[in-house]
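go over my protein:
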Amino acid sequence: MKKQGTKLSTEEQLLEARERGLQEALQVNAMCAHGKVLGMDTFSWINPQVDMLATVIESLPFNIIWIGNHEQIKTCLETHPDTINTIHTLIVQDDTSLNVDLTIIEAIQYVTCVKGTQEALEFVKPIKQQKSALLFTVEGTSAKVQKDMFEQFISRFK
């Protein structure tokens, strides 16, 4: 029996799947710039490492509107207190409260907590600001779905 030239062996299929997985992992763990949306420089980042995330937040030269997961936000604010200086608005998208020290919450101008990515995105339109950045971060099993929702949302305003 002759093997067809177009069929891949199991080993070749596994190698291709591994390569696709590595490419996806590289894409997912990098911050992605989306240009200007609603007049704001806009970025998204899936599964950011907290130290790198804090460095980026601290280095941006303008106020930040940050939509993120509760644990990401809590960890970043508690371990890198200087990030508070550039965050103008926090939108927690996966919890109806932000469990951090009250002094942190008081230092940030606006804090909103909702249960759902779509609900979080709806807060962006009325609070948009010139000379600001919109940062969207997610992590976990539904991160790609959430990022897709974010990209659909921002595509309406480009």
In short: Strands lie at 32-37, 40-46, 63-68, 87-92, 110-113, 132-138.
